[in-house]
UniProtKB/TrEMBL annotation:
This is Methyltransferase type 11 domain-containing protein. It comes from Sphingomonas sanxanigenens DSM 19645 = NX02. Residues 2-95 form the Methyltransferase type domain. SUPFAM superfamilies: S-adenosyl-L-methionine-dependent methyltransferases. GO terms for molecular function: S-adenosylmethionine-dependent methyltransferase activity.
Length: 192
């Protein structure tokens, strides 16, 4: 498994659930990280070198997670292409990033407006361009939405919206209520 932007103790959390997986984490910094020892491979690279680090794994990965990573990359579309090429036939990718509409959302601690996070570069990633890159590199889109709003979490967000608005903080369900993130699940075509 290749985890791009593997902060927030992702190595440990992943190994707790899938202890037998070969976990490769790549990030630009140790972000909320105390568990890199759970990684089988762990790399900290400069943002400008993110794509080349992923290219080391071309056609060798069963699963890629890129959760809120692309928007921090200097070469976000090259990174997306490298992500797609890293997958073996039958390999799956999960990609999430802030929705284009998030640039007009209210500002909240914990990031609701795209510009709340100083690490976000320029504008949110172009959803259509990400999809085009994935499909051009042999991935089938299994699920894709520009604004992820699953019903149960949307209801939680609705229930917490007044408190979130009053405190200026993200609460459980806030992202889903607003549809903060774009989500894509994709699979690389299996060899014939």
């Amino acid at each position: 498994m290749l985890d791009l932007g593997c902060g927030n103790n992702s190595p440990k959390l992943t190994k707790d659930v899938i202890p037998e997986c070969h976990y490769i984490g790549i990030d630009v910094e140790d972000n909320n990280q105390s568990s890199e020892r759970f990684s089988d491979e762990y790399m900290i690279v400069k943002s400008c070198n993110f794509r080349s680090a992923i290219e080391l794994y071309e056609n060798s990965i069963d699963a890629v997670i890129s959760s809120h990573n692309i928007e921090h990359c200097e070469d976000r579309y090259g990174t997306t292409e490298a992500l797609a090429r890293s997958l073996k036939p039958g390999g799956k990718a999960y990609i999430s990033f802030p929705a284009q509409d998030s640039t007009s959302f209210p500002k909240r601690s914990g990031t609701l407006n795209y510009y709340d996070d100083e690490g976000h570069l320029s504008e949110p990633p172009d959803f259509g361009k990400i999809i085009s890159i994935l499909t051009a590199n042999g991935l089938e889109i299994l699920y894709a939405t520009t604004r992820y709003q699953p019903p149960i979490h949307w209801i939680l967000g609705l229930g917490n919206e007044d408190l979130s608005s009053e405190t200026g903080e993200i609460k459980e369900g806030t992202w889903c209520y607003w549809g903060f993130e774009s989500v894509i699940w994709a699979e690389k075509a299996k060899a014939a």
